[in-house]
């Protein structure tokens, strides 16, 4: 997982969690509080910017945000096909 959008996602998470020393692709970002409710809206805006398209709140599934693997599959999978 070394794509540019995913690197930006990692930087966002590390930037808000200075005590986090590593971030595995399967870490539950919500249960671990790597992404908390205060940062979630900002995180959505980042994902929209990186994906180049708006995210419809009606289409959101919390499981899409649980891990880096899930984020990449949901928001950036089509990036790799380009």
Structural description of this entry:
This protein is an all-alpha fold and 82 residues long. Helices cover 51% and strands 0% of the residues. The chain is built from 3 helices and no strands. The protein has helices spanning 4-16, 37-51, 68-81. Helix 1 (4-16) runs antiparallel to helix 2 (37-51) and helix 1 runs antiparallel to helix 3. The protein starts with a helix and ends with a helix.
Helix content: 40-55%
Counted by DSSP, the helix tally is: 3
Provide the residue-averaged pLDDT.
89
Beta-strand proportion: under 5%
Estimate the global geometry from the Cα principal axes: globular
Query: Which regions have little confidence, pLDDT < 50, spanning 5+ residues?
Result: none
The value of Rg in angstroms is: 12 Å
Please outline the major beta sheet. none
The helix-and-strand class reads mainly alpha
Total beta-strand segments: 0
Distance between the first and last residues' Cα: 16 Å
Order of helices and strands: HHH
Q: How do the helices and strands line up, and which of them pair or pack?
A:
Blueprint: H1 4-16, H2 37-51, H3 68-81
Helix pairs in contact: 1-2, 1-3
